[in-house]
From TrEMBL:
Protein keywords: Signal
InterPro entries: Gp14 (IPR038996)
Protein known as: Internal virion protein B
Organism per entry: Paramagnetospirillum kuznetsovii
Secretion signal span: 1-23
C-alpha cells in the first residue's frame, strides 16, 4: 500500500512521543518549582519588611512615650509651683502641715501619671516587638517553603525521568519482541 505508515515508523513515533512527554512533564515541574520558590521568596521579603516596620514602630512608641512622660513631669512641676505660689500669696506657711501634704500629693499623683505613660508606651512597644518577631519567624518559614519547593521540583523531575525511562523501556522491549524494531 502506498502512503501507509510502517509499524516501525509508528513505533519510533510512539517512543519519541514518550520522550517528548517526559521532557515536557519535567519542564513543567521545573517551572512550577521555580514559581513556588519565587513566591516564597517574595513572601519572605514582605515578612522581613513587616519585621523591620514592627521594630521601628516599637522604637517610635518608646520615643513618643518618653516625650509624653517628660511633658507630664513638667505639668506636675508647674502644678506644684502654682500651688506654692497661690498658698504663699494667701500667707500660708509652705514648709509644714497641710500645704506640704497638698504639694506632696500633687507631686505623687503627677509621678504616677508619668510612670503610667511610660508603662503604656512599653506595653505598646512590646506588642510591636512581638509582631515583629512573628513576622521574622514567618519569613523563616517562607524561606524553608522556598527551599522545599526547589527540592520537591527536583524530586518530581527525577520521578518523571524514571517513569519516562520505564515507559520507554517497556515500549522498546514490546516493539522488539513483536519484531517491529
Amino acid at each position: 500500500m502506498s502512503g501507509s505508515i510502517s509499524a516501525t515508523t509508528i513505533a519510533y513515533a510512539s517512543i519519541a512521543a514518550t520522550v517528548a512527554s517526559t521532557a515536557a512533564t519535567m519542564y513543567g515541574q521545573s517551572q512550577q518549582a521555580a514559581a513556588q520558590q519565587d513566591q516564597a521568596q517574595y513572601q519572605a521579603a514582605v515578612a522581613r519588611n513587616n519585621q523591620v516596620i514592627g521594630q521601628q514602630n516599637a522604637q517610635a512608641a518608646l520615643d513618643q512615650g518618653a516625650a509624653q512622660e517628660q511633658v507630664q513631669r513638667q505639668k506636675t512641676k508647674n502644678l506644684v509651683g502654682a500651688q506654692r505660689t497661690a498658698m504663699a500669696a494667701n500667707g500660708v506657711e509652705l514648709d509644714s502641715g497641710s500645704p506640704v501634704d497638698v504639694q506632696s500629693s500633687a507631686a505623687s499623683m503627677g509621678e504616677l501619671d508619668a510612670l503610667t505613660i511610660r508603662y503604656n508606651a512599653q506595653n505598646k512597644a512590646n506588642a510591636y516587638l512581638a509582631q515583629a518577631g512573628n513576622s521574622g519567624a514567618q519569613a523563616g518559614l517562607y524561606d524553608m517553603q522556598g527551599a522545599n519547593a526547589s527540592s520537591a521540583g527536583a524530586i518530581g523531575m527525577g520521578s518523571s525521568l524514571l517513569g519516562g525511562a520505564s515507559s520507554l523501556t517497556d515500549k522498546w522491549s514490546t516493539y522488539q519482541q513483536k519484531g517491529v524494531l
